Amino acid sequence: MSGPSTDPRSAGAGPAAAPAPTRRGTELVMLGFAIVITLAAQAIVDITLTQSLRPELATFGGWFTALWVVMHLVVRRFAPYADPLLLPAVALLTGLGLTMIHRLDLAGDQVGAAATREDAPVQLVWATLGVALFVAVLLVVRDHRMLSRFAYTLALVGLSLLALPALLPASISSVNGAKIWIRLAGFSIQPGEFAKICLIIFFAAYLVDKRDVLALASRRVMGLELPRGRDLGPVVVAWMLSILVLVFERDLGSSLLLFGIFVVMLYIATERASWLVIGVGLFGAGAFLAYQLFGHVQVRVDTWLDPFAYRDTGGYQLVQSLFGLGTGGLFGAGLGGGRPDEVPVAKSDFIAAALGEELGLFGLVAIIVVYLVLVERGLRSSLIVRDAFGKLLAAGLAFAIAWQVFVVLGGVTGLLPLTGLTTPFVAYGGSSLVANFALLAILVRISDAARRPAAVPAPPGTPPRATLGEAPTEVVRP
Amino acid sequence: MTAEIVLQIFRFGFLLLLWLFIFAAFRVVRADLFGGRTGRVASVPPRAAAPGRRKSKGPKMLVVTAGPLAGTRITLGDQPILIGRADDSTLVLTDDFASSRHARLTNRGGQWYVEDLGSTNGTFLDQQRVQGPLLVAPGQPIRIGQTALELRS
């Protein structure tokens, strides 16, 4: 807009006279790029494994493209200043996930197992539901601050969702020992995934309310600002909550996820590192207790410490995953070139291992960097947005993604004990995918608020001016 | 043999494609950081009072001349003016390069002094970094991140 613009943003970013760039054009281009990569991956998988392109690829491509076009249009209309990288990053991750699930479907067909289910189309349906939820959230939540009004309601909803599987009979809620499901009429959902978002919203609203008390009333002990005993209440409650989840649902992952998110949000809200120390201390105590008391935790830790000692029993999955990653090496076996189906449950828990085997270290790191971009955009929205609730909420949501990726990849690579969390947007699993789309919608909403220019637009027709550094200061003489 | 070559092309081509995506994403991030709001300096606010209208001792208002808030004016009183991203600042900046409590303008005997409140990226008066309190003359640009301010009579 200002003469010979050196601004890369003006390329395709809305009408030239707009006071602030919305960057929707950039988003569209990046979305196109993500879709191209997804379709290329699908085609490579088909050609490598079956020497021909499957006819359904066109349907898939059309459907997949339509999803992102719909999302883009909705964002363009209802959150025009949203961050341009959130959607493309998610599009690429979802696309790669769908490709890998399809690839594992094909592997199942080749082995000839009779009962192999085609999971990729199911996942595409879940993605469609996710997009529907994304649109719904974006339409209903016109201003993220309204969420804080429902903080306590959402806390109640979140806790109920979290507790529901524990209360239901095991025949409905238990899969492989973890009671975190609700299985009804052929569908299984993990309500914990939705509980996560409700609780993050609640944490953000609660901490904005209470952060002054938590941050200011403290004593200094050995260089650490320790809060008063009674202010420890919330963190202890969160801690006990995560322990309860662990005990009744035997779900290491969710418990770790919730507690980590809460401690970090507490740290962000109060800017006191002592909360991190307290959090790590409580976590250590909880982990020690859990190890002493629960058999399934012991098994997880033992197989983590020495997977090869248990390679025929509990460690089989991890050992296969490590072999897969080793086979992949630096550049991977190529899409369709490896044997990722050797890892049990490769589609959900170990999809990162499958991607690592076929795309190699370079590919896996690329995927991690895409997550990094996603998280960075979330944290950046948190920095820019002006209200404290939005800041904390965006930071919490972004951290939730980062923490989940860290825990999952740590588990798959043997850095951390296995937890059974899912890789966000990539792994097979409806609840996780749909819930993460809702999370994305909230992030988009906050980033829109963050990047929306302040209410004083430049009056049209005023002469443009060079940046301040070059321009002479204009002194108005009295 | 050719099939093998095609597979290798797929293998490395796809990795290249993935990293090109990341490269493109980083370019967008970079454009956001550096090509962003500085390039989009809005506009000079309409010139203030006609010259020589009255003789006045001190400056009367603080005007934002560049940055996202360009055109904003704040009438100066006796109260100090707090500038930063925090909600309770007198001038709430949306600038990513500004700290929550970035700088303060204080009135001492009709003269205004600018003080940096320990900001991360610094406050600049006429290209010079503000260390201690500095006297601000009318028309002298104060720069905070991508925002420029000056006092006007």
UniProtKB/TrEMBL annotation, chain A:
Asked whether the keyword DNA-binding is assigned, the reply is no
The annotated region (Disordered) lies at: 1-21, 454-478
Q: Report a single Gene Ontology molecular function.
A: lipid-linked peptidoglycan transporter activity
Q: Which GO terms describe its biological process?
A: cell division; regulation of cell shape
Q: Which Pfam families match?
A: FTSW_RODA_SPOVE
What topology does the record note for this protein and the membrane? Multi-pass membrane protein
UniProt keyword Membrane present: yes
Q: Residue spans with biased composition (Low complexity)?
A: 11-21
Q: Provide this UniProt record's keywords sorted from A to Z.
A: Cell shape, Membrane, Transmembrane, Transmembrane helix
Give the subcellular location: Membrane
Q: Where are the transmembrane segments?
A: 28-45, 57-74, 86-104, 124-141, 150-168, 180-208, 252-268, 275-294, 350-374, 395-419, 425-444
Its recorded name reads Cell elongation-specific peptidoglycan biosynthesis regulator RodA
Mainly localized where? Answer: membrane
Instruction: Tell me which GO cellular component terms the UniProt record holds.
Output: cell division site; plasma membrane
TrEMBL record, chain B:
Keywords in alphabetical order: Phosphoprotein
Name the Gene3D superfamilies for this protein. Answer: 2.60.200.20
InterPro entries, A to Z:
Cell_Proc_Reg/RNA_Proc, FHA_dom, SMAD_FHA_dom_sf
Q: Which domain of life is it from?
A: Bacteria
Signal sequence region: none
Residues in domain FHA?
81-130
Bilayer-spanning residue ranges: none
Q: Under what name is this protein listed?
A: FHA domain-containing protein
* UniProt source species: Trujillonella endophytica
